[in-house]
Amino acid sequence: MFATKGFSQTTVRDIADAAGILSGSLYHHFRSKEAMLTELLSGFLDGLNARFTEIVEAGVDPQADLDGLITESFRTIHNERLAVALYQNEASFLATVEGFEFVAERSRDNEALWIRVIEAGQAAGVFQASLDPALTYRFIRDGVWSTVSWYRPGGRHTPETLAEQYLKLLHAGILA
Amino acid sequence: MFATKGFSQTTVRDIADAAGILSGSLYHHFRSKEAMLTELLSGFLDGLNARFTEIVEAGVDPQADLDGLITESFRTIHNERLAVALYQNEASFLATVEGFEFVAERSRDNEALWIRVIEAGQAAGVFQASLDPALTYRFIRDGVWSTVSWYRPGGRHTPETLAEQYLKLLHAGILA
Amino acid sequence: MFATKGFSQTTVRDIADAAGILSGSLYHHFRSKEAMLTELLSGFLDGLNARFTEIVEAGVDPQADLDGLITESFRTIHNERLAVALYQNEASFLATVEGFEFVAERSRDNEALWIRVIEAGQAAGVFQASLDPALTYRFIRDGVWSTVSWYRPGGRHTPETLAEQYLKLLHAGILA
Amino acid sequence: MFATKGFSQTTVRDIADAAGILSGSLYHHFRSKEAMLTELLSGFLDGLNARFTEIVEAGVDPQADLDGLITESFRTIHNERLAVALYQNEASFLATVEGFEFVAERSRDNEALWIRVIEAGQAAGVFQASLDPALTYRFIRDGVWSTVSWYRPGGRHTPETLAEQYLKLLHAGILA
DNA sequence: AATGAATGAGAGTTCATTCAT
DNA sequence: GATGAATGAACTCTCATTCAT
């Protein structure tokens, strides 16, 4: 519900109704509405960071690593669509909220990891040296992760077709 | 304020305080909080669509058109940053809200316009034929417009450097 | 906890936490929160009335009786400080609560007992006849029992020094 | 209502009902329930301190000053009975509450003022030198101010008869 | 004797909106 | 064009209490 309607548009009563209990009863399980958000986000971010780290640590060459990160991103959009949407929608709002520092921290970790891969590729001569690594990371990140706003499982695309199309565009560019 | 804090996180009192009047007095100028949003968004979308249409109508060849649309997008992010951020943040929420159908309509118009340009490029043999036009449009759109979430005027980048870097990546791809 | 934080400011959970069990488990030992209060207060009031009665029944002359009642009051403040504080804080609130009629009854018993001593002293010519007995009782009672709000065992005073100072003031007055 | 039922036992809805408006409307006049308490208490304490200070500054001799302070206290109990009761009931609870430091401060000011008068009387030889001034102050204060818990205007006593009886007891003591 | 999940009522507070002045 | 008082609904959260286990 947080992903669909937004955190602050979702009421505790909405959640309790969906759970089939009274709103007060939720407080037996969570200390606050924010605590529910924390549990959702930290679980998601922990898993994502672990998978990203594993890809890079087991990596062979920068291009395979970057392709792996991108493919894993599309898979995550498929497997944890609502968590991704939640993160996309609320991350900027949470940046300033006390108790949610871990969100910005995890984002910074991710950014550093991706940029290292891009720089390694440039150093190895496999990625164009004239591209700004930080900028390139952001263009890729946004192009990939924004997919969550329109992707629907069971629709025209699968994580694999998305990754294939995106990588084709990214690798060789749009020009014939 | 809608762009910065979000529409529903911004109270009518916040706006009135910033305007130096009392909240009730705002209703002399706007029929509702939503009417303020409508005015902001429709002005922004009208201007944007007009500029996009002009680019394509005055267009020479598909590549120049696409580059023009992208460059104009970065300029708009610079010139109307808050309106763009507002649109990015609230568009999906507004899709279902009565009275805001015009937002989705304008978005569809834009999408059709961009996709026509891409398809024209493929037909002319200048864009890769194996790319899905709709998918390519979304990857580009998201990569470009998400810039608004981190771009700050006066920072390391200008609309021109952003466009130059993005077009370099888009034209030739990341591979050396 | 009732004495320190007040009855209605103390939650059943507070009490259960302090007891190292869960709040629901308290209801195995007490039928309600009020039942805990009853147990505390009735035990305290029973003991106090018994000691007061004993003093007066074993009494020799009115002055010794009054001094004895006052000294016993200071001792009770020392020995059962929290119970006294609880009684002082909650008595007026409880006056109207169903099931707590015993509190007002015990207070009335006490009042009658003290006033009898004062009137006996006036009849015997040992206490000033021009003093209103009921009023004098209340002035004494409040001066003595309010001590509980600031008295701390182990501090500058003992029940004995308090009684000595108070009796000096009461016996001869403030004027030199 | 705060005086009668206690601050935390009084609900915002109780107050609004008594005022003939809805509970939310109260927040147009007060920022919070605590703000109502602040307004009541600070007004009361400011006035009381001003009157006490005036009595001592205009004073001739210590006995007249002390009598004046006591008489003024009984008058205040008569004139501002509910404010006095509120202060008596809530002062100790408020001692620890953020934003209510002014209550403890005013109390300390009062205490210092009364004790100075008592010490001046002892120095002048008009008050018994063997009495502990701080202790004597507290016995008097509690005897006098606790009156509020049972005094009812229009009843058997007036502020003047109360003061007369109390001063008779205080001046010469209970012994004949 | 204790757990832990749930209840249901009610708490303080927020806020878009209305409207007589 | 603005005020300021009020509305009414909804919000998050608290808490004494119940009860099957």
From TrEMBL, chains A, B, C, D:
Keyword Nucleotidyltransferase tagged: no
Domain of life: Bacteria
Alphabetical UniProt keywords: DNA-binding, Repressor, Transcription, Transcription regulation
Coiled coil: none
Keyword Nucleus: no
SUPFAM superfamilies: Homeodomain-like, Tetracyclin repressor-like, C-terminal domain
PROSITE patterns: HTH_TETR_2
InterPro entries: Homeodomain-like_sf, HTH-type_TetR-like_transc_reg, HTH_TetR, KstR2_TetR_C, Tet_transcr_reg_TetR-rel_C_sf
Domain HTH tetR-type: 1-48
Annotated region of DNA binding: 11-30
Name of this protein: Transcriptional regulator TetR family protein
